[in-house]
Amino acid sequence: MNVFAKWMLHKKDRKQKIVAEKLGISRSTLHDILRKDQMPSLKLAYAIQDYTEGDITLYDWIDQRQQENKASTKVATKPNTKKINK
Question: What is the pTM of this model?
């Protein structure tokens, strides 16, 4: 769960439809961003920063992307194998 999704959960009066309208995006786009299926554009990341009054910053999205890249690198690395002598 990303930081914006956590922020939304703690703000119980935040409906996805209303938040999407205020950010100028569709509800489905907001849903994808909250589920981490989609990263916001730079413009949208700044809009989220303004909407959350700085609780969610542009750097939160960058940190999230870096953590995802590190995690995927670990999965993609080659396992250590022993050489078999014939």
Answer: 0.71
